[in-house]
Amino acid sequence: MRIIICGAGEVGSHASEVLDGKGHSITVIDAHAERLGSIEDRLDASTLVGNCAHADVLVEAGADGADLLVAATDNDEVNLLAASIARRIGVQKTIARVHDYTYLAQHSIDYKRSLGIDRLICPEFSTATAIAQSLRNPAALAVENFAGGQVEMQQFRTSKGAKAVGQALSDLALPSGVRIAAVSRGRDVVIPDATTVIEEKDAVFLVANADVFDAAHRLFVGKAPPRQKVVINGGTTLAEWVCRFLRGRNFAVRLFERDPARAERLAADLEWVTVLNEDPTDAAVFQEERIGEVDDFVSLLDDDEDNIIGAVLAKSRGVKQVISIVQRSHYLDLLYDIGVDRAFSPRIVASQEIEETLDDSRVRRLSSLERGVLDIWRVRPGESCDLLDKRLRTIKLTPNWSIVAIQRGAETIVPTADDMIEIGDVVLVLGWHENESDLRQLFDAR
Questions:
Q1: CB 203, CB 157: distance < 8 Å
Q2: Predicted local confidence at residue 429, as pLDDT
Q3: In sequence order, what are the residues at sequence separation of 6 or more whose Cβ sits closer than 8 angstroms to the Cβ of residue 327?
Q4: pLDDT, tens digit (0-9, with 9 covering 90-100), for 183-204
Q5: What does pTM read for this prediction?
Q6: CA angle 154–392–383, rounded 5-degree value
Q7: Contact, 12 vs 5, CB < 8 A?
Q8: Please, what is the average pLDDT of the chain?
Q9: Does 95 have pLDDT greater than 90?
Q10: Which of 6, 177, 223, 234 gives a 20 to 30 Å CA spacing to 413?
Q11: Is it the case that residue 320 has pLDDT exceeding 60?
């Protein structure tokens, strides 16, 4: 494929390296010639000095015949303009990277649709989403990323005395838009049907539309478990997003910010968070605030070295799980080597989103659950799929498969028994590991 990358900064450079490594023909545009020098030295890529928001520069780069343009400069407005112009010139697909979440939120206008851009990505926002989801349940990542937050998933153990315990699923008054995707009991894992009886201490995989998730969750756990204690190091925009994603969940969050003015502002904006104007890596503060007793320490400072030091200190002082971000992706292996439990790089997140945009495959494995026994698949049904236009209650999929969610346009839902799969839908399916050939046949997704 012929791909144009606008911007040779952190995101643009990493995306160029990843896509060049996959054999694509890459052209990189940047207004600063010195940034392009390192790309010329490392990659088999063409470079062009210029303003990527200028149509003549895009034409010179070959936009009229390109398959993809990725606008990843440091300026949101330049990225939006470059992607919009490129589409009109003739690029098949366009992606614009933005920092300001306003462009993604669609509160008053859908910028992507209005400007004719195929996808907007905000690596920092996506990274914050991934971090928040990993704090809740790593298995939820695939489902919730697919659904854009409209659908939630959690794995948890049922509690003694909970309403669901001892009942068959058919006898439970589950809210509409709720599905038990899998049940794990000891060494056994099942994809349940209506006759499955829930027992105490079962590990349940609950998938539900976001607006009914909490109500469904209470049926299985009864009394809420102890709150998960989280410390966030740094009051960055990314940290603020993480706090917002955890709001209303079973978390007790403390945010440490060294700048007094910013700490005061965050305390006013994040009233559900305890904001402290302190350095949590200071030994006296660490001891006084009993940070060693928390469940999670998340380091989200702007400086990679400060994040690494903070994470290592927290781990060495007894924190159960330590999470950190780094801008430079080559630090990721180092972080795992020195004991950090989970690490994220916004520019790798951006590259993954770009690769997803390029992925036109009908079947793609997104994640695995329960020690790799089950897989979550994204499926685009073919026109000859026998499941199309049939109510799900009439289709026998268990015990091999479960339809977890259906995406139709901008909307993603957990289907009810009366819902149907239509041509053009994208379906999230849970099934047994290594059954891809059967899945392709079932959905005519060859």
A1: yes
A2: 93
A3: 10, 304, 345, 346, 347
A4: 999 888 999 998 999 999 999 9
A5: 0.72
A6: 105
A7: yes
A8: 89
A9: yes
A10: 223
A11: yes
Residue type, 206: L
Cα–Cα separations (whole angstroms), residue 56 to 27, 48, 50, 383, 426: 15, 12, 10, 41, 38
- Name the residue with tokens 């346009």: 409
Q: What is the CA radius of gyration of the chain?
A: 24
d(CA 348, CA 350): 5
Token representation of residue 367: 């994640």
- At 330-377, the pLDDT tens digits run 777 778 788 888 889 888 888 878 877 777 788 988 887 777 788 899
Could you report how far apart the first and last alpha carbons of the chain are, in Å? 22
Domains with residue ranges and CATH for the chain = 2-121 (3.40.50.720), 142-221 (3.30.70.1450), 228-351 (3.40.50.720), 360-442 (3.30.70.1450)
Burial class (CB in 10 A: 0-12, 13-18, 19+), 389: exposed
What's the rounded Cα separation, in Å, for the pair 58 and 368? 41
Neighbours of 262 (CB within 10 A): 16
